[in-house]
Amino acid sequence: MADFYQNGIITTLHNLVDRPLEDLEKELMSFSRTRPMSLVLPSLYSELEGPALDNIITELTQVPYLNEIVIGLDRATEAEFEHAKHFFSRLPQHHRILWNDGPRLKKLDAMLAEQGLAPTELGKGRNVWYCYGYVLASGRAESVALHDCDIITYDRSLLARLIYPVANPGFNYEFAKGYYARIADQKLNGRVSRLLVTPLIRALKKVYGSLDFLEYLDSFRYPLSGEFSMRADVLNDIRIPSDWGLEIGVLSEMRRNYSTNRICQVDIADNYDHKHQPLSPDDAAAGLSKMSTDICKAIFRKLATQGEVFSTETFRSIKATYFRIALDFIETYYNDARMNGLTVDRHSEEKAVELFAENIMNAGEHFLANPMETPFIPSWNRVISAVPDILDRIYEAVEEDNA
Length: 403
Prior knowledge:
This is Glycosyl transferase. This protein is of the alpha/beta class and about 400 residues long. The chain has a single domain (about 10-400), classed as Spore Coat Polysaccharide Biosynthesis Protein SpsA, Chain A.
């Protein structure tokens, strides 16, 4: 149970009481008459066979206020797509599956690639981008929520709390970021957020001072959460990163386009657990190793666009400052866990910090060697300007696939 404290420059909407879910859903039903809502579910086909998604769909069948559910399906053969249609068919809401590996959407992707407008990397960012394109094409929603398909502890109150800030016509928020404690099996999780992002932001403040963007990022209690919601008009102009920097990139885009009083964070779950990535210290292209490098690059790129100058020497200073701060955080989290009867493996935490420190330098060297790298997928406004009928084409392709 959270307190009511407001920290930083972003409004925090807490979970202060055990408000009945029925009350929230009743309000959301009222909101839906003037502000229809959509849910985007980016999914790998393998998640249909995992421990989480079946329960998520069971919970969603009971959600009364959604006008549309859009499922982005990656890595699926034709037979697997047919199975996915059957798997999701129990959803009573209007729903569509984007078969991203199907011939119709691949043809559209190739056409966009010829004009330099298609995502260049496979992954969640690409999946989400096409789903947002379909949401714009269908025109069935004014508020859109997104959450992952591997949440083992899911119940539908998470969605209700996540979409409420942008669905309530009395609120002025354009974007809401979900947050929660990362606790499961009596352990403290969330290593990348706890041991990389927060210490890195604090280190950058020491090196560069309290820049607006760093204060903004430091206001988020869980900046790497994969759950957020937004007004549909945001989808037109947001540029989505195609790598593991997706969550940081989305936060950066919201800061670029909107004032902070149009952005909030909301407590969406007391208990949250999902699939965990391995540390992968011996494989820089996998697991938390790749994730940490991509996140560092996303932060460095954003600061560079604001005029900050980087060099090998400054990256060395950032790394050294980060390392000291991160080690202090290990002590802090260990004490917090012990007081709550939780366990933390201090050895594995220090191994993670050592890897993250190394990847700060790797990300910095990559950034200096590739100053023109732009991993952002173009905004839909730009794509529509180049291909005016692209939304119609996406809509027709998805409808034909789902027929």
